[in-house]
Amino acid sequence: MTAAPVGGTRHAHEAKGLGGGRVGLLGAVVIGVSTIAPAYTLTGALGPTASAVGDHLPAIFIVGFVPMLLVALGYRALNNAMPDAGTTFTWGSRAFGPWIGWMGGWGLLAATILVLSNLAGIAVDFFYLMLSQATGNAGIADLAANVPVNVAMCLVFMALACWVSYRGLEATKAVQYVLVGFQFLVLGWFAVAAFTRVADGSAPAGLSIDPGWFNPLGVGSFSAFAAGISLSVFIYWGWDVVLTMNEETQGERTTPGRAALSTIAVIVVLYLTIALAVLSFSGTGDGELGMGNADIQENIFAALAGPVMGPFAILMSLCVLASSAASLQSTFISPARTMLAMGHYGALPPQYARVSRRFQSPGYATVVAAVVASAFYAVMRVVSVNVLSDTITALGMMVCFYYGVTALACVWYFRGSWGGNATAFLTTCLAPLVGGLLLLVFFVQTAVDSMDPSYGSGSEIGGVGLVFILGVGVLGLGLVVMAVQYARRPGFFRGESLVVGRSTTDA
C-alpha cells in the first residue's frame, strides 16, 4: 500500500545521497539482531527482571513482545507509505506536525546515544574479564575499575565502531554476520548445557518448567508488572534500526517491515529459551547462583558461565564482548540517519545532511554521535557509576516515548483510509493504537514509580529518584534544543519542508 500525501512543497521521501540496495532481508535481520545485542542484554536484564516479577520471567518476556509486535506493524505500514531514513522524526512530523515529530526524533537520538555509551562500557568490562580468564591473571579484570584506563579503552572501542559505521552498511553487514553468528552459537551452547545439568541433577535449583511461569496475572502488583515490562521493552529495543536503513535496503518499501517482524520473532524465541534455561538452572532465590542474589544480578552470565559451561566459560565472556561490540557498531546506524534526515529537512544545521561521497553513509552525523556518546560516558564514569547506570535505566522511558509516538503517528496518518478493509484496519489502526497506548502507559507508570528514591540504584536528589530526574531531564533538554533550533531555523517548524498530511489511499 502506498499512501498519497496531502499537499506540501516537499515529499516525505527525498534522496539524501545514501547508497541504495546495500542490504537484503537476511542482512537487515542480522543487523537488527546485533543492535538488540541478545547476549549483552540478557546478562544485564535477566536478574533485575526476575527480581521484579519472580519466576514469571517468561510471561513478562512474552507480554513485552506483544507491544513490540503491535508497534512494528505500525512501523511497517508507515514505511510502506513513506520510506525515509528519519523514521520517527519524519513520520511524526508528517502525522502530527514538526513539534511532536522533532521531539520523537529527539527521543530516538537520546536513547541511542545513551546506549552507545553503555555498550562501550560493557565492552570494556568484558574485554578485561576475557583477558583475565585467558591469562589466568585475576588482576587484569580489575583494570576495568580503573577510571582512566576504563575511559581510555572505551574511547578506543567507540572510535573503532564509528570507523566501521562510517564505511557504510556493507562494512557493517560483513562484521555483523561474524559477531551475531558467534553469539547464537555460544548462547545455544549455554542453554543446552544448562538444561543438561538440570536433567542430571547437578543444577543448584533444578526446576522443572512450570506452566505458571507463563501466566502474567501471577505477578504480585501492577507496579512490579510495569517495572518488568519496562525492562522487557528495553531488551527488545533496537529492532527499529532496520527501518532507518530503508533508503539503503533492497526493496525499500517492503523489506524493512518484513525484517523488523522477523527480527522480533527471532529474538523472542531466543529470549524464552535462555530465560527457561536460567530459571530452571538457578531459580529466583537469593542463593549463590540464584537470580535473586543482588551480587550477580548485574551480570548473570559472568556468574553462571563457569557452573554451566565448565572450562568453556571463557566463550561466554567472548560472547558478551562480541555482543556489546556488535551492538555498539550497529547502533550508530539509527542516530546517524535520524540526524541526517533532520539536517536534510532543516530541523538541524545543514552539515548534518552531509554524506560521505566514497561510502555513501552519513559521515558527519556518525562522527557527531560518536563524539557525544564518548563525552557522555567519560563524564558520567568520572562522576559516578550509579549516575551512568541510572541513566541507562531511564532509557526505558525514552524508548516507550518515541515508540509510542511513532505508533500513534501511524494511526493518525492513516485515519479514515481503511475503506472497509479489515486487514488494513488491524495493521494501521488497531494494532499500533493498542501498542502505542500500552507503551505510553508504561512510560507514565515508570515515570511515577521512578520518583521514588529507591528506584534504580537508590540515588536521589532532594528526595526525588535520580532515574526520574535523568529521564525527565533528558526530555527537557530536548525541549530546550528544539526551542534553539526554532529560533535559528523556523522554516521547518512552519511546515516548509515536511508538511502535515494524511493518507488519501485506502490502506
Automatic annotation (TrEMBL):
Transmembrane segments: 23-47, 59-78, 99-131, 143-166, 178-199, 219-239, 259-280, 300-322, 363-380, 392-414, 421-444, 464-484
Localisation: Cell membrane
Entry keyword annotation includes Iron: no
Primary localization class, coarse: membrane
Signal peptide as annotated in the record: none
Pfam families: AA_permease_2 (PF13520)
Record membrane topology: Multi-pass membrane protein
Keywords associated with the record: Cell membrane, Membrane, Transmembrane, Transmembrane helix
PANTHER family: AMINO ACID TRANSPORTER-RELATED, MEMBRANE PROTEIN
Protein name: APC family permease
